[in-house]
């Protein structure tokens, strides 16, 4: 068996085309969606993700604002930028690119974002709504990567109902929130959250119908660990030196040989990453639609 590809690039392109029509409706009514990004420091990967977010905005007609701060910015100065964005009417939603430098209290920053402008769905109020399941119908943004994974599977017709999903990784952007989403009644999966401290990971993987690998450990999930026909979502990303070229290349958490045993695989790059970006745009558009009374 060779896995079929969960094509995140093509799916994200389709979502962006649908969003462009919705943005036109909003702008025709005088409500222009505007995404701001806050980037601290000069990490090349974070720079490239933020650049991609602005490019996506341009493609669908969302205006965008870019705030860049030095790596040694103080907590107080960063909070000032957050306060300005909370007040800026041109910014209808924004994100603070993660990770932030170690001297910054990340949770305090996430908590300072106006929950109504939280385009990442990572404010405690919005995560709390996910926990309480008050989000049905959608009244607040979902974290982008978990929402992107669900959308990617749905658009490829992969059923999650009754399936055992093993999530590897407990980060705030993927591992922790995805279980809350997948165990909702309308999705109805059973979720085990594993992480780098899990002692019987092998046993859990052998039982998994679906594996969400989000630990950021290159090729940690191997073919011999997974069940025949498992669905594999490769989320974690590391930059590893290619022995042939000596250059750094993107490497996911799943060993490519696992594709021979899986039924579906999201490649990395080209799988969940583009979906994360597409769902960010969805959050921005939906918050404007809610404000306009189009989405209830
Ligand atoms: N505030 C946030 N910070 C971070 C998030 C997040 O959702 N919100 N997630 C990640 C980074 N991220 C978005 O910010 C992100 C990562 C990867 C991609 C992506 O499209 N990757 C491409 C490959 C890109 C490359 O070639 O370098 C792919 O997978 O095909 C998009 C967004 C951590 N921080």
Automatic annotation (TrEMBL):
Substrates-to-products reaction catalysed: (6R)-5,10-methenyltetrahydrofolate + H2O = (6R)-10-formyltetrahydrofolate + H(+); (6R)-5,10-methylene-5,6,7,8-tetrahydrofolate + NADP(+) = (6R)-5,10-methenyltetrahydrofolate + NADPH
Keywords: Amino-acid biosynthesis, Histidine biosynthesis, Hydrolase, Methionine biosynthesis, Multifunctional enzyme, NADP, One-carbon metabolism, Oxidoreductase, Purine biosynthesis
Pathway per the UniProt entry: One-carbon metabolism; tetrahydrofolate interconversion
Domain Tetrahydrofolate dehydrogenase/cyclohydrolase NAD(P)-binding per the UniProt entry, residue ranges: 143-290
All residue ranges annotated as the Tetrahydrofolate dehydrogenase/cyclohydrolase catalytic domain in the record: 6-120
Binding-site residues, NADP(+): 169-171, 237
UniProt xrefs under CDD domains: NAD_bind_m-THF_DH_Cyclohyd (cd01080)
Function: Catalyzes the oxidation of 5,10-methylenetetrahydrofolate to 5,10-methenyltetrahydrofolate and then the hydrolysis of 5,10-methenyltetrahydrofolate to 10-formyltetrahydrofolate.
Family per similarity comment: Belongs to the tetrahydrofolate dehydrogenase/cyclohydrolase family.
Protein name in the entry: Bifunctional protein FolD
Organism expressing this protein natively: Kocuria gwangalliensis
Gene transcribed to yield this protein: folD
